[in-house]
Structures are given as structure tokens and as C-alpha cells.
Amino acid sequence: MNNSSTIVSVQNISKSYWREKLEIPVLSNISFDIPDGEFLSLMGPSGSGKTTLLNLIAGIDRPTSGTITVSGNNITSLNETSLAKWRSNNVGFVFQFYNLLPVLTAYENVELPLLLTKLSKKEKKEHVQFALETVGLADRMDHSPKQLSGGQQQRVAIARAIVTDPTLLVADEPTGDLDKHSAEEIMILLERLNSELKKTIIMVTHDPRAAEKAHTTKHLDKGELS
Amino acid sequence: MKIPLSYTFRSLWTRKLTTLMTVTGVALVVFVFAAVLMLAYGLEKTLVDTGYDDNVICTRKASQGELSSQIDRDAINQIKTYPEIKLSKEGKPLASAEMYTVINLHKIGSGDMSNVVVRGVAPEAFELRPNITMKEGRMFALGTNQIIVGTNINQRFDGTQIGESIEFAGDHWQIVGVMDAAGTGFDSEIWGDAERILSAFNRSNAYSSMTFRLNNKEDFEKLRDRVAKEPRYNYVELKRERVFYREQSEAMSMFITILGTVITVIFSIGAMIGAMITMYSSVANRTIEVGTLRALGFKRRNILSAFLIEAMMITFIGAGVGLALASTLQFFAISTMNFTSFSELSFGFALSPSIILNCIIFAIVMGLFGGFLPSIRAARMNIVNALRAS
After folding, report:
1. Could you report the per-residue pLDDT of B324-338, keeping only the tens digit for each?
2. Secondary structure of residue B13 in the 3-state scheme
3. Tally of CA atoms within 13 A in the half-sphere of A13 that contains its CB
4. For the CA atoms of B283, B289, B293, B296, what is the dihedral angle to 10 degrees?
5. Which residues make Cβ contacts (< 8 Å) with residue B166, sequence separation at least 6?
6. Which residue of A has its CA nearest to B386?
7. pTM for the whole thing?
8. Which of A26, A132, B81, B339 is surrounded by the fewest CB atoms within 10 Å?
9. Which residues from chain B sit within 8 angstroms of residue A109, using beta carbons?
10. CB contact under 8 A, A84 and B297
11. In whole angstroms, what is the distance from residue B390 CA to residue B371 CA?
């Protein structure tokens, strides 16, 4: 159900994959709402469908049935081109393995989503600098990913995720490839983005310590919310 | 094009070896393509430059060239009297009635025999072709068996040095000079006095052609029509000299171009397959990057154009290298049989802006064909599958 404080509404979502003629159900009739400014963690065993659910909410995958509404937009009805535009304006992605483009510098990686906007060069520079300052890496903007540690690369990825000031931040195992100390830093950063910049964050994690930082935790098991 | 060119360029740089190999393959194809075009253009340029815009050449109608042409002395003398013909410094018509034939000479080194053009000319021939200068020695004397040889003949045939004699038409002919015809077809000819050579070949009344200079270039059509209407010598055909030589080069030039293009197209298939393999490998190595870009909001067409540009960048660089290599061919000369005169013709490879443009277009087309399918594969990737590729 939509109300003024709901930013994401997931209604009767099911998702199946097909292997040749065999249907493999991943999510079964899932419904829930996420309020604006929420920090939600999705937990569950491997294969429970949490990444699939995250992908559906982020608009990089389509449900077999059901609807997903984000900020009043039914994203399940958008065509591919509109969905790509919607993602660039509304979703910031944080991946487990950072997914930075290795041939670009930290600055250029963060600037990438801004290339899809009509901002001037000066405005883009201001946005990138702000994002890198927010994650504490303004002094490393000319470094390539391989010159940065895992934690620093993830912080660059977070800067890339927030540079367009999106409605939603989706993070898939953001600490999954990091040591304990770096993971702690990333979680503190995500908490700050949620509390200070009021970003709604949906995070998939296996790590109970990471999940503790979230306001709400939902558990998925065999494609159903438990 | 939203994806920055720096991404494309640096991606190529990170795969230096495969990029280098593909660039080399493309460069070789472009080299061959450029060489063929340069050869055809060099031939055309050599023959076309042989003529002048305000010179007119008279040959027999339907003759394929000067070798198969005959014009009577009477017709020559009549045409010379037309007022449209410019007068020489001596006040005579600036016209050279010429005898054109071929003889055999031995090539330096191999000793093989080859046909060489002998042209009997009038003294006005040099005023008609001001780019011809004496490089060594002196001019032949009228009424004697003295001859001068073109630079290419002097360099490529035995017995063609100053002071030496060659034999033809049952007589000995002494070489007294070497002429420099500025790279034109005359560099591959032997010149002597027309009357003496006509007599030696027992053709006293039959010239091969006559070349004359017009007072005014615009008079050509009027003069041509007048000659065509004259019953005594309407078998004579007038052509602007430059047009005549362009036609002489057409068949050979077309032959070289067609043969070379066929060979190049076959080679280019190999280069395109090479570019395709490189691009498929590039796409496979960057599946996650493609997935990430698509997740960030880049559209399929952005991915498609980025990979196509990458393929075209490879072939463009290849084109540059191939053209640079081909440009060095300009320092080399080649000699071949001129099928119109059945004589040896020496000419160089010549590069022109249109050849450069053709090679670049050819390389870009190779890039488009070679890069198209891999780029389509990249653009059609499912985002979720691409992100899971690790």
C-alpha cells in the first residue's frame, strides 16, 4: 500500500527463472512497503532470492508477476529505455566486488553516472568532489582502482552511487569482500548516508554485524519472507 | 555517445598485445590496398602528366594509340596551316609531327629483352613539352643518327649511356644525351630526328601522330569540328593531349585497381575476422563492466557505440600505420608493360588525398564489420547475468 512515507511498494511479486523447460521459482508472492529514509537489510541463506529481490527493486530485472512502485512510479510497467533512464536518476548501486571500471580513475568512475545527465562540466566536477569528500577520498581522486585498497574501492563505489543524489541506494553484500575493519568503515559510511543525507538504503547481506546497522531486517527463505 | 572515449582508448591500451596484433593485421591490409591504389594512380599520373592542357594530339581515328596510328604527310602539312595553332619562337607552327615505334633493348642486370619506345620528333617537340630538359650531354643533331634517351631508359637498359650506340632499323644510333622528362612517360622513351627515323623505317610519308599547341585553349572544339568535316583528312582525330594520355592509362589502371581490390578484399576478410576475435575477447573480458554500465543507466545503444568505436579505433590506427608504410613506396619506381604501346613504362607509386581518404574509409568499414557482432553481443547482454559473470 502506498502512503506519504512509503518510497518502495512491493506488491505480490513473483519471479521464476527458466532452465530449458524447467521453471525455477525464486520469489513467491512477496509484498511489503519500505518507508522513505529506511535502512533495510535483507538476509537469508544462499539461493533464498534476496539478490533477485534487490535487483527487481533496483530495476535491473523484471518480475514474473506483481508490481513494484518506487516514489509513485510503477517501474514494472516501464520499457527498457525508460527503465534505464529511471535507474540513472533514482538508484545508486553498491556491489560486493565494487565493480569499478579498472581503466578509469576514482574521479572518472564517480563521474560516470553524471555523463547521463545534462549537468555542465563545472557542475559535474562539484558533484564528484562532494561525493568523494563525503566518502573521505577527495585526495585519491586521480588514483586508479588498483592503486586503492578494497575498502577504498568500495568507498569510491559508494561515491559513484550517491553522486546523482538518487532516491534509493541498493547494496548487494557491500562488505562481503572486505576485512573486518574495512567492513566496519563501510557500514559506518552507509549509516551516515542514511542518517545525514536521508538516503533510503536496501542492503543484502550475510553478515549479522552489518545487518545490525540497519533499522529493519527482513529474512527471506526459499523465496518467501519469513 | 555517452561512454567516454578515454574508457575505450585505455581499454585498448590495457590489452596491448592483442590490440597490437590486430592493428598489425589491419595495417598490412591497408598497406596492400594503399599500394594498389598508389600504383594505379602513379601510372595514371605519369601518363596524364605527360600531356598539356593546351596541347592537341592528332592520331588516326579508331587507333588504340600512337603505335597503331598513321597520318599522311599531306594531312599533317594541311593541319599545320590552321591559324588556331600557335607559332614557335622561330615563327613556324608550334607542332611536332612524330614517328612512334618500338624496338627491343636488353635490361641491365637480367639481360631480358624489353620493348622500348622510339619517338622521332621535330625540333618544336621541346618547346611543346617545356618540362623536358637535358640532364646530361646534348641535343641530337637534325638529319643524323644521333638520339637522346629518357632517364628511365638510361638507368634500366644496357648500352644506353652517352657515347654508346644501339642498333635498330638496320642502323647504328649514337646516344648523345639523356633527357629528364620530370617523371612523365617521356622518361621511358628514346628520341631522335623524326625525318631521319621515318626514313630508317621506310615510312617517309606516314607519321604516327602530330602534337601542336593552341593559341587559345577554347579553340579546340572548333578546330576538331573543322578537321572532322574536311574530306581529305577526316580520318584524323584530334584530342586534348591530357585526355589522350588519360585514356592511354585507363585500361591498365583499371586492371591494376580491380586486381588489387580483389586481393585486398580477400585479405580484409582475414583482418576483419582478427578484429572480430579481438572484440569478442574484449567483450568477454569486460562482461561485468558492461553489466555495471547498464545498471548505472547506460543504454544498449551506448554500449553498442562504445564497442563499435573501439573496433573502429583499432582499424583507424591500423589505417594510419598502413598508410605510413605505404607512403614510403613513393621512393620506389616500378616498370611494367604499357599495353597500349606494348613498351616498357616506368612509373612510381603516388599518394593522393583521395587514396588516404579511401584507405581510412576502408579501414573504418573493416572496423564496423569486424566490431559489429561483438558489439551487438555486448549491447544485448542481460544486466543480471553480466553482473554475475565473475
Report:
1. 999 999 888 776 766
2. helix
3. 31
4. 160
5. B103, B105, B147, B159, B160, B172, B173, B175, B190
6. A60
7. 0.73
8. B81
9. none
10. yes
11. 24
